Amino acid sequence: MRGKLIILLVLNVLFSGFSVQADSKSSMTELDQLADEALQLTRFGRFEEAKNIMERFGELFSEKGVIERQFTMDELRIVTAAHHEALKALASVGLNTNERVKKVTAFRLATDAIISKYQPLWSEMERPIMNAFEDVKSAALEGDENLYNTELNEFLSTYSVIQPSIKISVPVEKVQRLDSRIAYIDRYRSTFSEQKWMQELEGLEADLKKLFSEINKDDTDPSIWWVMFMTGGIIVSTLSYVSWRKYRGQKLQKQKRKDLND
């Protein structure tokens, strides 16, 4: 009886934990869906509807992030800033649809980054980022300063789409290194010699490739295995204890019957 009680207690703890996780997952799914819906509406030019969805997102995100503390302070700050920029873009009549889509996409990717800890959506931006960078390199090799400035501006605009997301997914020192390289190239774009241009661009290219190769690795969170091991260990230990108690009880009963017969 005592063994059964132990099993029931263990299962109760496990299932209550699963229930909390299910509720948390449900709210995360809702946030993800709202962010995605806002992006789709923006792409179709339905800016007022997208704004309404964004406002609903803001209320839920505030509740889950501030009240229930499901996010870190950095995650709150980054997603809140991306959310603010997206809302401002949707409300700005001076921005064209493409620019609005970029701002809302940056917000969408940042939202996904706090929910999808492994292989986030922004990792799928490798091709457009690297293609934009290749155009910068080509313009530099041609020695066309005007074309170079145009292509560099386009690259910076494309990179800004994933910038909030990588601040969530990538260690801060790596993000700072990458941002420093980009800021340096942007600031001194008109003062580089051709040799210096290529040296800086090759360094940035290496960092960009490393960024995407590392985030696309199929790593499994070690804590998941630890939880599985511990959960399985508790159940196995409990069942083993109960089985041992049952075996011992049966053995004692046999011994008593044997003593009575003797």
From TrEMBL:
<dbReference type="InterPro" id="IPR014231">
    <property type="entry name" value="Spore_YpjB"/>
</dbReference>
<keyword id="KW-0472">Membrane</keyword>
<dbReference type="Pfam" id="PF09577">
    <property type="entry name" value="Spore_YpjB"/>
</dbReference>
<keyword id="KW-1133">Transmembrane helix</keyword>
<keyword id="KW-0812">Transmembrane</keyword>
<keyword id="KW-0732">Signal</keyword>
<feature type="signal peptide">
    <location>
        <begin position="1"/>
        <end position="22"/>
    </location>
</feature>
<feature type="transmembrane region" description="Helical">
    <location>
        <begin position="224"/>
        <end position="244"/>
    </location>
</feature>
<protein>
    <submittedName>
        <fullName>Sporulation protein YpjB</fullName>
    </submittedName>
</protein>
